[in-house]
Design a protein that fits this description.
Layout (H helix, E strand, L loop, with lengths): L7 H10 L7 E2 H9 L14 H14 L7 H13 L4 E5 L2 E5 L2 H8 L10 H12 L10 H4 L3 H4 L10 H14 L3 H15 L5 H17 L3 H19 L4 H16 L3 H19 L4 H16 L3 H19 L4 H16 L3 H19 L4 H16 L3 H19 L4 H16 L3 H19 L4 H10 L1
Antiparallel strand pairs: 1-3, 2-3
Helix pairs in contact: 1-4, 1-6, 2-6, 3-6, 9-10, 9-11, 10-11, 11-12, 12-13, 13-14, 14-15, 15-16, 16-17, 17-18, 18-19, 19-20, 20-21, 21-22, 22-23
Length: about 475
């Protein structure tokens, strides 16, 4: 193969590429890692593992032989690979992407010799981890991190030596709504807790992100004890009004809301909002986040008018500060639309829900969990205004994807089944109704219990 015609550096580079998603390797991933000397740890607790330092030096020698990133050196290696058709080049949105044929990738993965004495796959893990950017909030650097998504899915847990790298991979998967977040974050917490250089702040951050992963995937009962422990730890280490303590309080309050414990959630959310207003100001993004969370609780306890006022304020402020297409703006739009639906203002809710769905499809992809949530919300509004055929199509798509991504017995999947049953009944589609009810009943009995209102209603369909 023409691989042997490449310079030694180009051979080493393309062998690392073979352990990435070879359909689309963004140049910016490599450059960002190189600018960080391949030593960046998404959540760092020193000292670094000796292997990390050595791997970074090897990567530096391959991609930055003169000591720092130089485009002409990298482009020279890429040019060699293009010359022999081992790589292809494409450009989209000002970004350069490289790809290789699957047969080339398979061949490169079968080469037994290590790269400068190190495993190619482990060096690739170090490269990818160095390119991750974790913010204060999920989605803060989503546009950067989304380019890494297809690559980090190929990483094996046992090839990661730094707990902080597990944190970074877990962060990416939380943003993607992927269950792999739990595997990485559980490993991160375990490694930090067992470390001789235990860092309480690092353990708290990882535990809080793990709880967020549980919460995003609907495993809120597992998130709650972690979040309660983190809040107590933050209060002890940082004080009751430190911003990190308020963040832990906000996460715990949201989980209380998710399991119906609104009376416990409300005072926490009110405390977070008042403290952030005082410390950060009324227009700070964290203050607006607290305002949105409190509005959701107001809606849940029947205080709809107070909820609407807060949600309209949040949406107006986020549009002004972040722009109409920002994910947080879309979240505010979705919340306001849901409140409009609760008070019977469906004609105002519908265009907002349609905008949220179209924007999330474009920004996150059609099968992201947040996109599916927007689709389910729009289906409910279609049903409310008599557009059951449109609701039916959306609910079937949501059910198929949630079953694939979350499993048949996940609470979000079960809610979709319940909504779809309502639509099938409204359309008098008796055969499909009975078939789905026979599948849904044992699942609801298992998850919700025999006397839950959903279970009882589904059982009635079969009698």
């Amino acid at each position: 193969m023409s691989f042997r015609c490449l310079s030694s550096e180009a051979q080493e580079m393309i062998r690392l590429f073979a352990y990435m998603d070879a359909r689309s390797i963004a140049r910016s991933i490599i450059k960002r890692a190189a600018d960080r000397k391949f030593l960046h740890i998404p959540q760092e607790v020193k000292p670094l593992h000796p292997d990390t330092i050595v791997q970074a030096e090897v990567l530096q020698g391959i991609f930055c032989p003169s000591g720092e990133w130089k485009s002409f050196e990298f482009d020279g290696m890429i040019g060699e690979c293009l010359k022999y058709s081992l790589l292809r080049l494409a450009t989209a949105g000002g970004e350069k992407f490289y790809s290789m044929h699957p047969l080339v990738q398979t061949y490169l993965q079968t080469i037994p010799e290590p790269v400068r004495g190190h495993s190619s796959s482990r060096l690739t893990v170090r490269l990818l981890a160095s390119s991750i950017t974790c913010g204060y909030l999920l989605y803060e650097f989503f546009e950067i991190n989304r380019l890494l998504g297809s690559h980090v899915k190929l990483v094996h847990l046992e090839e990661i030596t730094e707990p902080g790298d597990h944190y970074g991979f877990g962060w990416i998967f939380c943003e993607l709504g992927n269950t792999l977040s739990i595997d990485h974050l559980e490993r991160c917490v375990q490694m930090w807790k067992s470390s001789g250089d235990r860092d309480e702040e690092g353990v708290s951050k990882a535990t809080m992100l793990l709880a967020t992963g549980y919460h995003l995937l609907g495993r809120t009962q597992e998130a709650l004890p972690l979040q309660e422990g983190v809040l107590e730890s933050q209060k002890r280490l940082l004080g009751p009004v430190h911003l990190d303590t308020l963040s832990a309080m906000a996460h715990l309050a949201n989980s209380y809301s998710s399991v119906g414990r609104e009376q416990e959630a409300l005072p926490l959310k009110e405390e977070v909002l008042e403290s952030r207003k005082r410390l950060l100001g009324p227009d700070h993004l964290d203050t607006l986040s607290a305002m949105a969370n409190l509005a959701n609780s107001y809606s849940s306890v029947g205080r709809e008018q107070e909820a609407l006022l807060l949600q309209e304020k949040v949406l107006e402020s986020r549009k002004r500060l972040l722009g109409p297409d920002h994910l947080d703006t879309l979240s505010a739009m979705a919340n306001l639309a849901s409140s409009y639906s609760l008070v019977g203002r469906e004609q105002e809710a519908l265009p907002l829900k349609e905008e949220v769905l179209e924007s999330r499809k474009r920004l996150l992809g059609p099968d992201h969990l947040d996109t599916l949530s927007a689709m389910a919300n729009l289906a409910c509004s279609y049903s409310s205004v008599g557009r059951e055929q449109e609701a039916l199509l959306l609910e079937k798509e949501v059910l198929e994807n949630r079953k694939r991504l979350l499993g048949s017995d996940h609470r979000h999947t079960l809610l979709t089944m319940y909504n779809l049953l309502f639509t099938l009944r409204a359309l008098a589609m008796e055969n499909e109704l009975r078939t789905l009810a026979e599948v849904a009943l044992p699942l609801h009995e298992k998850v919700h219990g025999f006397e839950h209102e959903y279970t009882v209603w589904i059982r009635g369909l079969l009698n």
